[in-house]
Amino acid sequence: MTSEAVAVKRSAGRRLAGLFHGRPRLQVGSLLAAPGAWLVVLYLGSLAALLITAFWTVDPLSGEVIKGWSFENFESIINEGVYGEVIWRTVRTAVLVTLTDAVIAFPIAFYMAKVASPRAKAVLVVAVLMPLWSSYLVKALAWRTLLSEDGIINWALNPLGLHGPGYGLTAVWLVLSYLWLPYMILPIYAGLERIPDSLISASEDLGAHPLTTFRRVILPLAFPAVVAGSIFTFSLTLGDFISVRLVSNSQFVGTVIFNSIVNDLPFAAALALVPIVVMIGYLAVARKLGAFEHV
Amino acid sequence: MRRRQAHPARTAWLIVAGLIAAMGILAGCGGGGGSTEGGGGEELQKLGKGEGELNLISWAGYVENGSEAEAPDWVTPFEEKTGCKVNNKVGNTSDEMVQLMKTGQYDGVSASGNASARLWAAHLVAPVNTGLVPNYKTVFADLKSQPYNTFDGTPYGIPHGRGANLLMWNSDSVKPAPTSWDVMFDPKIAAKYKGKISVYDESSYIADAAMYLKYHEPDLGIESPYELNEEQFDAAVNLLKEQRANVGEYWSEAAKQIQAFSAGDVDLGTTWQYQYFTLKGEGQPVAASPASQGFLPKEGATGWSDTWMISGEAKHPNCMYMWMNWIIEPKVNAEVAEWFGEAPAQELACKETENPNFCSEYHAENPAFWKRVYYWETPLAECGNGEDDCMDYNQWVKAWTEIKG
Questions:
Q1: Low-confidence stretches of chain B (pLDDT beneath 70)
Q2: Do residue B260 and residue B283 come from a single domain?
Q3: Is residue B88 part of a domain?
Q4: Tell me, what's the pLDDT at B53?
Q5: Is there a contact between B336 and B148 (Cβ–Cβ < 8 Å)?
Q6: What 3-state class would DSSP assign to B236?
Q7: Does the pLDDT of residue A291 top 80, yes or no?
Q8: What is the spatial distance between Cα A172 and Cα A158, in angstroms, rounded to a whole number?
Q9: Do the interacting molecules here have an ipTM over 0.90?
Q10: Model pTM?
Q11: CA nearest B215: which of B244, B186, B174, B250?
Q12: Which of B195, B250, B402 sits opposite A82 (nearest CB)?
């Protein structure tokens, strides 16, 4: 009896195995079914929903969504100057934050990859990762306290007769540059690690000035990594609204979307397409620059 | 086997396009607008047994069960009496309350006037059969049948209490003590406090500017700061754009404003009782224009008169009716009013307050005082003259984005 039952069970398992045998497409397909469904339904599906919602309108009083095709939301984004200003301010800040992070991150990453001893390297990697372990909100709030009128920055600058930036666009630039710095350091570090030391030695042997070596050997090889890092810093800045609200009065794309969500969801959706469009353009350029070649 | 080159990006676009097409068809089928009139659900005809549970949305301090230190408790006696277990969700802003009500998971909400009309228009709240709320009879007459709680002549809620928004200042750095909102609005005077002014970050603040103009520029002919034609509206918006240069911070969370005041980032601004009492409690050098001290800035003040509304799809309507009656029980309404620092809605509550002078301090029985308080309302295009020439809520929201630049 029991041996028979086992045989039946086994044969069911076998039959299943037999089904997959020699059918590589089925094997891969069933392995990818769950993540594939996740990507299509949750990610691409919500993007599609966003795109459609952007064409709807709302009843001005109740905020009830009126379904139907209309370009009203896009027209007001284009025609009302304030949104152009907000978008431009956001993109400008994103570029500024990206450049700042690239300039700060490169020497750090270079030291980590090429100069530091293996022990120091491990310590530095942990040090760069550590801020990512604490909540984003805590760090943003900490900066709010630092930058406040009675905060430590003003306290430290006071003896020098200086005054901190206070809340405003400068504060946003500072805070976001700080928050996204690890996202820039890590890809550059990985990119620099991949450059064989022998290439640098060869350049030196051939009599190149260290600056020439940097300009003509290291930078071209590491550039795709910088572009990869910049995708993070740029896109994260483009979408941020919490830090912006905490340390400034300025409106960014994110804050305007946040404020529109309750009463005018379709408008928020239309505005949310702006960062997506900007990012598609940015990614296209990044691809041209080879950011995805070694991913 | 010949391998085709895969184009992941192209595949993704194809999928998105396909999904859009599918959803477009779905949306087309589901189309068709609702009726323009408001309200949702029928009013309750007969009070039945409690359903054992009640889900509320309220302003902080309106539904206290003693869990907070030193807070009184008027929820537990209600639960014991009716068997309705109260689950409360605190809403931080009127916008948030409207959004929460849209989920359909709540039985009722303590709505301010800038939410009530929107809730009504969105068919989210049902008319209230005041016959089933015995305590309603003794609610102050000047709180009944108001534009923010009655629509088309039908009551949609039970008044809870009222108060005026405050002008608060740091008494160390703002001297002499202001008696007018000109410290925030008059470009010359406000410039003295450049970067130190704290302003409420919501479109309803446009009414504060309109109220200021009503007093200082009578030629504009502003009657109600919530009913503005284009010319009046533009004047208010321009005043706020001028003010922007002097603003230190726009606040929408009370905690953010408290922190800014105690850190010295701002020195004066518009606020609520909650922030004022908290800062006082911390020993900060703040003074304000509490109505309780008989003081309103000379232009008056915007304020609130809150209404308990019942959801059109309430799952516990009987419990909600019991709650609406409970919250205006003389004793309970007195407790709420004293805890929160506002004038009670219930006339008989004035005999139940711990501080025997509470009602006179808060002017609860003085209709003349409230003539200078402009309760939050939702701006509507139709504003009483039969023509749709007033600026509506959506235009207020858009203008607020523009003001902040």
A1: 1-6, 8-9, 23-37
A2: yes
A3: yes
A4: 94
A5: no
A6: helix
A7: no
A8: 22
A9: no
A10: 0.80
A11: B186
A12: B402
Are B398 and B252 members of one domain?
yes
List, for residues B102-151, the tens digit of each pLDDT value. 899 999 999 999 899 889 988 899 999 999 999 999 999 999 999 899 99
Same domain, B50 and B123: yes
Q: Which of B96, B118, B260 sits opposite A61 (nearest CB)?
A: B118
| CA dist., res. B348 & res. B345, Å (int) | 9
CA distances to B186, B219, B373 from B213, rounded to whole Å, are 10, 9, 15
User: What does the alpha-carbon distance between residue A235 and residue A278 come to, in Å, rounded to a whole number?
Assistant: 9
Which one-letter DSSP state was computed for residue B315? S
Half-sphere exposure of A216 (CA within 13 A, CB side): 11
The CA angle B219-B387-B224, to the nearest 5 degrees, is: 40
Q: A26-35, A185-194, A219-228: which range is least confident on average?
A: A26-35
Query: Which chain B residues in 366-405 lie under 8 Å from chain A, judged by CB atoms?
Result: 378, 380-381, 392-395, 397-398, 401-402, 404-405
Instruction: Looking at the complex, report in whole angstroms how far the Cα of residue A185 sits from the nearest Cα belonging to chain B.
Output: 27
Per the structure, the complete domain to which residue B87 belongs is given by 8-163+303-375
Quick one: B276 and B143 in the same domain? no
For residue B381, being part of any structural domain is answered with no
Residue B382 lies in a domain: no
Q: Are residues B31 and B48 in the same domain?
A: yes
Interhelix angle A219-239/A81-110, rounded to 10 degrees, is 140
> Is there a single domain that holds both residue B296 and residue B323?
no
User: Residue with structure tokens 């820039």?
Assistant: A184
| C-beta atoms of B16 and A47 within 8 A | yes
**Structural domains counted in chain B:** 2
Predicted confidence at residue A9, as pLDDT, reads 61
The residue whose two tokens read 């749709």 is B388
CATH number assigned to the domain comprising residue B322? 3.40.190.10
> In the structure, what pLDDT confidence band is assigned to residue A174 with cuts at 50, 70 and 90?
very high
Instruction: Tell whether B63 is covered by a domain.
Output: yes
- Tokens 């997506």 locate to A276
Same domain membership, residue B288 and residue B326 = no
CA A67 to chain centroid: 32
Summarize pLDDT for A222-262 with one digit per residue, the tens: 999 999 999 999 999 999 999 999 999 899 999 999 888 87
The contacts of residue B394 (CB under 8 Å, 6+ apart) are: A58, A60, A61, A263, A264
What local confidence, expressed as pLDDT, does residue B34 receive? 43
Residues B198 and B255 in one domain: yes
